[in-house]
């Protein structure tokens, strides 16, 4: 697999968005057989590189390398996200508060598109073989999910896990 940083969206206002794509190459090393987009897109190249660094460290160094940078987990175990949660995610993504207020109608349309995409997409499931092969050991210190989130999800996203543990918002 080859990972690339890609410009992905040009809006009428000429705002460029960035995303990370993983390409599965054919045996010839040139032909792209499949492409996997890795999560969010960002308006600035620096943020997408930070996200890549988080994922790279996880893949190369394991969960201990990113644990302190994972203050919350998305509530995926609850099923598909609600419109309200998706709207907050879209608003959270717009880093300039003034722009978010001015662009509220456009952000609403973006959130509606996100909601429709989420509702019409399948929830990924691992095969039974993979589930059996990849059992999580009881007491694994890196086995966290949304049930471990602090009560104020949105405030916690800006903190490091160690800060939340030190302030007793999180148990670990």
How many independent structural domains?
2
Q: Please report the distance between the alpha carbons of the first and last residues.
A: 34 Å
Decide which structural class fits the backbone. Answer: alpha+beta
Strand portion, in percent? 5-15%
Poorly predicted regions: none
**Helicity level, as a percent range?**
25-40%
Q: Average pLDDT across residues? A: 85
Count all strands and give the number. 3
Helix-strand sequence: EEEHHHHHHH
The strand line-up of the biggest sheet is 1-2-3
Rounded to the nearest angstrom, the radius of gyration is 18 Å
How many helices? 7
Major beta-sheet overview: 3 strands, antiparallel
Quaternary state, please?
single chain
- Described by the principal axes of the CA atoms, the overall outline is globular
């Amino acid at each position: 697999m080859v990972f690339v940083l890609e410009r992905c969206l040009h809006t009428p206002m000429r705002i460029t968005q960035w995303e990370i794509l993983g390409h599965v190459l054919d045996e010839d090393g040139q032909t792209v057989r499949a492409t996997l987009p890795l999560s969010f897109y960002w308006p600035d190249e620096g943020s997408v590189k930070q996200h890549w660094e988080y994922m790279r460290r996880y893949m190369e160094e394991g969960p201990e390398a990113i644990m302190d940078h994972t203050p919350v987990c998305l509530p995926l175990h609850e099923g598909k996200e609600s419109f309200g949660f998706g709207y907050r995610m879209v608003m959270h993504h717009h880093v300039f508060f003034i722009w978010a207020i001015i662009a509220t109608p456009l952000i609403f349309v973006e959130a509606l598109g996100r909601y429709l995409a989420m509702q019409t997409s399948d929830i990924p499931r691992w095969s039974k073989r993979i589930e059996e092969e990849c059992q999580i050991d009881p007491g694994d210190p890196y086995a966290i999910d949304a049930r471990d989130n602090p009560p104020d999800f949105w405030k916690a996203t800006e903190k490091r896990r160690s800060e939340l543990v030190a302030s007793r918002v999180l148990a670990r």
